[in-house]
Each structure stands twice: as C-alpha cells, then as structure tokens.
Amino acid sequence: MDISHWVFVVSVLLLFLASGSFSIDSFHQPFPIVEPDPGHTKLRLSREGLEAISRINTPIAAVAVIGPYRSGKSFLLNQLLSLSCYEGFGVGHMRDTKTKGIWVWGTPLELNIDGVRTSVFYLDTEGFESVGKSNVYDDRIFALATVMSSVLIYNLPETVREADISRLSFAVELAEEFYGRFGQDVAFEPAKLLWLIQRDFLEGKTVKEMVDEALRHVPNTGGDKNIDQVNQIRDSLAVMGDNSTAFSLPQPHLMRTKLCDLKDDDLDPMYVKKREQLKELVASIIRPKIVQGKSLNGKEFVSFLEKILEALNKGEIPSTGSLVEVFNKGIVERCLKLYNRRMGKLRLPMPEQSLQDVHDRSREEAMKAFDKLHFGRRHAKSSFEQLDEDIKEVNKNIIMANEYHSARLCEALYTQCEDNVDQLQVLRLPSMAKFNAGFLQCNRSFEQECIGPSRANYEQRMVKMMGKSRSLFIKEYNQRLFNWLVTFSLIMVMVGRFIIKFILIEMAAWVLFIFLETYTRMFWSSESLYYNPVWHFIVSTWETIVYNPILDLDRWAIPIGCTVALWMLYWRCYGRRKHKSRWLLPMYNSHKSGSNRPRSD
C-alpha cells in the first residue's frame, strides 16, 4: 500500500516538472502567435509563437501577407522562405488545418539592414471573407498585421476590387496618424504597403498604373455614402506616398492543386524570375520594427504585441484611436509628471492670481511637451483631453490645498492680532499713542503675511474687529485716564507731604486734584471735561510721558516705580542730612524749636 502511494506521488511530481519545463524542441516550423477566441470575434495570444519570438536578441522585422480567403498567401510565404508545402506553412487546398489567426515561421531570416543584423520573421494571416467569421474579426486581423509588420504584402488575385480598397481604411488611418514622424519620438513607422497582384496579363499596363487606376475617384452622382467613403480612402492613400509600392506576379502553374508537388524547374520560368525579384524587393524595403525611436528585440516585440492586442480587443470595432491612446498613455503620464513637478515647487499659500499664473505656465509647458511628443493627428484629441482633465484635477487639489493653508495662516494671524488688541485694551497706563502703534503694527503684519484666497474674508473680519476694539478703547480711554490722574494726584500729595516733604510737589498735586474734581462738579459730568483745552494739554503731556520713541512707560512702570520708591526711601532716611544745603526750592523745616517750627501733623 505504501509503495503504491509513493509511486503515485513521484509520478505526479514528474508530470509537474515535465509540464513546467516544457520547451519547443525545433523552431523550424510554423507557430501560432494570435488565435481567435471561441466566438471567433476577438483575438488572443498563443504562447508557442511568442516563445519563438522572445528568444531573439537582435532587432526584429516582420513581413506579413494579407488577402482574401484561399488567395495563395501561405504558398507565397513558403516561396519567399524557399520552403516546400510539407515543411512550411500549411496550404489550404492540401491540408484540413487552414491558417487561423496569425502564424509565424519559427526560424527568422538573418539580414544585414543598414549595417544592423536583423531577424526577419514571416507572418501568415487568416484570409478575409471566409465562412463563419464576422467582418469585425477580419478587421482585427488586418489591423494587427498592419501594426506588427514592417512590410505588409496585400496579396490580391487578378485585380483590385472596391472591397479590397475599403479594407485599407485602417492602414490609411494608421498612415495619417503616424506617417511622417521620425526620430526618437516616433511611435512606430507604419508598415510599407506592397500591392501584390497575381495575374498573368496586365493588358499593356504596368502594375503601378493598374493600382493607380483602381484608386482613382469613382463618380458618385447618386450621392451613395459607401462610394463617398471609398473615395475618401482613395484620397487618403496619397498620404502614404512612397510608403507603398506595387508588384505583379504571374501564376506559377496552371495546375494550382499540384503546386506543392512541383519543383522550380516545373514552374513557369517567368514566375520564378519574378519571385526572386519579389524577394529582392522585400529585402530592399524592409526595416527593423521601430517603436518610440527604438528597434525591438524579441521580448520587446512580444510586449508591444500584447499592448496592441489589448487595444484592438477593447472596443467592438478596432480603431486607430485605441492604438493612439496606447502609445500616448505613457506620454500623457510623462507630461502630467512634468506639470506636477512644476507645481510641486510652489510654497503654499500664495495669492490666487500668482497660483493661476504658475498653473497657466506649467499647463502650457506640459501641453507643448505633449504636442511635441504625442502620436497621432486626429485621434490624439482624446489623449489631449485626457491630459487636460488630469491637469484640471491636479490643479483643483492644489487650489484646495492653497485655500486650506491660506485659511490656517490668516486664522493664526487674526488670532494673534486679536490677542494683541485685547492686551492693548488692558494697559496699565492707558495710552492712545501706544494703542495706535500696536493697532498699525498688527494691521501691517496681517497685510504682509496673510495671503491666498482667504485673505479677503479675513480682511473683513479684521476691519470689524479693529473697529470694534478701537471704539471700545476710545470709550474707556478718557474715563480710565481721569481716574488714574485723580489717583496719581492724591498719591503725589502724600509723597510731597510725608515722604520727600517737597511743598511744590504737594501744591502741584493739589492743583491737579482740585481742577479735576471741581470741574466735573461744576459741569455735572466728567464727559464735559474732555472738551476743555486744559484737558487736551494734560492728555498730550500724558501721552508724551507715557509712550514715546525713547520710553514705553507702561512696560517699565513697575521697575521705574520700584526704583523711585527705593530712591525716596533712601532720601527719606539718609539723603536730606547729606544734601540739605543744596536744595534751592522750599521744603518743610524739620527743627523742633524756634519760630520756624513746623506745624503739628
């Protein structure tokens, strides 16, 4: 029982290892790289063909043959590769397995192109108009072959039909979008179109003249929309210019069903000659596949193919717009990073107009970079709009961040000013000059530092707060000054009488006290005093003493008061005995005898 169990485990492991290490033994055979899905509407990748391509490290070029169903595409490819039907691509009338999707010959031809060793792959495509397929599927095959290949051989039997021209609409759109862009910024060079007409007699015309005649305008007196559309394609083919050429190839033999069994000696000599010329023509016009200024190796070509297939399968109908978006996606991201980098250098908050100016310059720089780097002409509009939307979204976030930082800064400045004004309201020594100076300093600091979109709102709040605080201060100023002067006059009476015994100080204090008390009694209220010129003189003198450029008495009131008190104490105890003879002003006589004896307290 145990032995059978271990045998089973070992066999499972061997199967797992064998499947994980599967590799292709021989690449000298065709492999599918793109296959139809079960519904035969969309395409999917085949890993066998991708493995055959991924192993190539040199630049890659691809030759794809497209055309109607059973038009001899696979046989033509075998002839170009010098392969028999038995070892090359399967030929439709010979085998039951016909070409489905896109196949690649696993062994590339090695060519020296402009001094660069290039691996040239040949691609066989599923024919158009076969039974059981949708037109959308044919369009996807055509589109993918057009984008993948460096040379696109349009294999047509006998003549060029209207339907054949209509199928070129995708190639024309690609040419209109991408043709003419060179240098490092090119997305990819459109495939060179090779019209291959398989016909024995051209009735005195060259194949080029035959193609040109087929591409001439068709009269449309009835206004048929389909004819107009085909005529537009005819006009657009002129965009491709020297990117297209034509070639005629006679029939190899009258017995078409036995072509695979015939040697070159059995084939029409003219066909053999023209076939060799076709090989030389293909070799002369083929170039490595260039994507964004770089030639692709095997792995890069597979990655490129995956992007293209995803884009073509995205919509119901394949379009060049979807391909343009694939190529422009990275450029949009790059331009958006450029915009973010410019805007990221800002120090928020900042004035709205300044932010708008920086945004406009950064957006213009990003858009110029997109105009310089983007791919496509008509279909680049959606990518342009996407970039514009992304920039608007980033700018919206920056505006919100600016509003937030502006509100925080202005709120902090407003709170600081409010606290400063509250402190000015409770000055020990009321001073209009100091209040005005603090008021102006706070307002100046707010004007200089509060910036951004919140400035206007907080300016209104500042004006209201300042006006209210100023009115309250002025209302209380005269009353506080009056009370403080009355108290001051009484204190000076006591100081002049009992401490320093200086009669003039006592007299001046009494005069001030009597004036304040008598005037208010005579005129019924203290408010009437505030209009008296004497009061104005007292106020101006007070303001000059309390707050001036040299001294802020409110700040130094306590130190100065302590110093004066100590000085008075010193004078009371020691100063009069030492400096009695030096006083020129009258003082109280302290002798206990004689006629000058002071009155009893």
From TrEMBL:
<feature type="domain" description="GB1/RHD3-type G">
    <location>
        <begin position="57"/>
        <end position="177"/>
    </location>
</feature>
<dbReference type="Pfam" id="PF02263">
    <property type="entry name" value="GBP"/>
</dbReference>
<feature type="transmembrane region" description="Helical">
    <location>
        <begin position="507"/>
        <end position="524"/>
    </location>
</feature>
<keyword id="KW-0812">Transmembrane</keyword>
<feature type="transmembrane region" description="Helical">
    <location>
        <begin position="481"/>
        <end position="500"/>
    </location>
</feature>
<protein>
    <recommendedName>
        <fullName>GB1/RHD3-type G domain-containing protein</fullName>
    </recommendedName>
</protein>
<keyword id="KW-0547">Nucleotide-binding</keyword>
<keyword id="KW-0342">GTP-binding</keyword>
<dbReference type="InterPro" id="IPR015894">
    <property type="entry name" value="Guanylate-bd_N"/>
</dbReference>
<feature type="transmembrane region" description="Helical">
    <location>
        <begin position="556"/>
        <end position="574"/>
    </location>
</feature>
<feature type="signal peptide">
    <location>
        <begin position="1"/>
        <end position="23"/>
    </location>
</feature>
<dbReference type="InterPro" id="IPR036543">
    <property type="entry name" value="Guanylate-bd_C_sf"/>
</dbReference>
<dbReference type="InterPro" id="IPR027417">
    <property type="entry name" value="P-loop_NTPase"/>
</dbReference>
<keyword id="KW-0378">Hydrolase</keyword>
<dbReference type="InterPro" id="IPR030386">
    <property type="entry name" value="G_GB1_RHD3_dom"/>
</dbReference>
<keyword id="KW-0472">Membrane</keyword>
<keyword id="KW-1133">Transmembrane helix</keyword>
<dbReference type="GO" id="GO:0003924">
    <property type="term" value="F:GTPase activity"/>
</dbReference>
<dbReference type="Pfam" id="PF02841">
    <property type="entry name" value="GBP_C"/>
</dbReference>
<comment type="similarity">
    <text>Belongs to the TRAFAC class dynamin-like GTPase superfamily. GB1/RHD3 GTPase family.</text>
</comment>
<dbReference type="InterPro" id="IPR003191">
    <property type="entry name" value="Guanylate-bd/ATL_C"/>
</dbReference>
<keyword id="KW-0732">Signal</keyword>
<dbReference type="GO" id="GO:0005525">
    <property type="term" value="F:GTP binding"/>
</dbReference>
